Amino acid sequence: MWARWLCSLLAPDGKYLASGGSDGTKIWDLALRSEVNAPASSWALRGATTQLLWLKRDDDTTEALVIGTQAGYLVCWSDDVGKNKDASVFKQVWCRQLATAAEITGLAFDAMTNKLAVCNRSGVIQLYTLRGTAIRDEVFSWPIHNCVPRSLEFGAMVNNERELLVFGTFCGLVYPIRGNLPPSATMAWSLGCQIGDVALDIENNVLCVNDPWTGVDTFNFREKTTVKSFAVPMTKSARVRNVSLGEKGAIVVSGSDDGVAFVFNRRNGALVTKLRVDASDWVQTVAVRDLRTEKIKALTGLETGDIKGIPHIFAAKSREIAGRNAIFVYCKKTTRRRFLARVAASFKMVVHVVVCLAALLALYQNFSVYAFKVPVPRV
User: Fold this and answer.
1) Phi, psi at residue 354, to the nearest 5°?
2) Were both Cys, which of 112, 252, 300, 308 would link to 264 (CB 3.0–4.6 Å)?
3) Structural domain total, the chain
4) Which stretches are transmembrane (predicted)?
């Protein structure tokens, strides 16, 4: 791809990788390792691609991608399966511009209620109901005063509605929206830091937040308490360094302003590895997805996920460059030490099973011989 990479996201089945930047949106077939035929992005009018969202629906196997742009446009592409069976082809389904033409900073989709949420830099939150891939109705459009939304997430179920969470960039507040009621500052709760990006895992009760000044903080989502902090060095200036969770919430991946992607162990806080993308370029984008748990989170230069059971990370530079911006692909490799540890654990489990079976067999033999032995009375 060319130019700056701003966002990326793996498809729910791991077949496609969507990437967006200053030159528009591109879709890559990971099996063929080639670019997929897609409509022209019209980035000169719509602006750079800032947000991506794959629509995962249980009743429809067609791949659908929602795109948010710098000029406030929402665009939907769909996989045109019947047009060409030999190659994947995407077509544009619809395109609309929000009432306030500002950069789209967040997208979220709830498959249970079939609702699409979007927020932009001017502080407007909009919620739509979808019919397939088409927008059916606009549920509400609410402004949040004195707040620049950075991310949107659908949270837990509250009565019959799923709670929508809006994360403010500079205020550090989380605004819950329930039903059709407007967001209120009295219901908001503070994270105590600026919010560069958010990763939410409701199943594991983990909220992961990027602080542009210090690094990454993890919270207990239900209790709203800080659990652990991960320091990410700031070598130039405070920039948004997106963050995400991977491997069923076991690792935390963060970008940096020094060309490095940091991978942490979420439970013990240890630094697992550093992935060098470039000598000093900005790695802003980070996104993680586990195919086996179907958890999706899109962020900005880094994308991680499992392909054929092997964790992969896709990374690229997040600054304007003159030539091609190569996408670097990293995969998790099992070391000899880790392999021997797994073999030892498996052998230990087998030994335990054999010992338990031997104990049960000995108990059965002794119990059958002595426990029911009836004494014969002497005559």
Assistant:
1) -65, -45
2) 252
3) 1
4) 339-364
Look at residue 350 and tell me if it is in a domain.
no
Measured CA to CA, the distance from residue 52 to residue 39 in angstroms comes to: 15
Separation between Cα atoms, residue 154 and residue 172, nearest integer Å: 18
Residue 348 belongs to a domain: no
> If you count them, how many residues does the chain have?
379
- Measured in whole angstroms, the distance separating CA 345 from the mean position of its chain's CA atoms is 31
Report if pTM > 0.90. Answer: no
- Whether residue 130 contacts residue 136, with contact meaning beta carbons closer than 8 Å, is answered with yes
Q: Is 344 helix (H, G, I), strand (E, B) or coil?
A: helix
CA–CA distance, 211 with 278 (Å, rounded to integer): 22
Note down the domain range covering 52: 5-338
Per run of 10 residues, the mean pLDDT along the chain (length 379 residues) is 74 85 87 86 84 84 89 91 66 89 93 92 93 88 91 86 91 90 86 90 90 91 92 80 80 82 89 77 52 34 56 69 68 68 80 86 70 55
CATH number (domain holding residue 222): 2.130.10.10
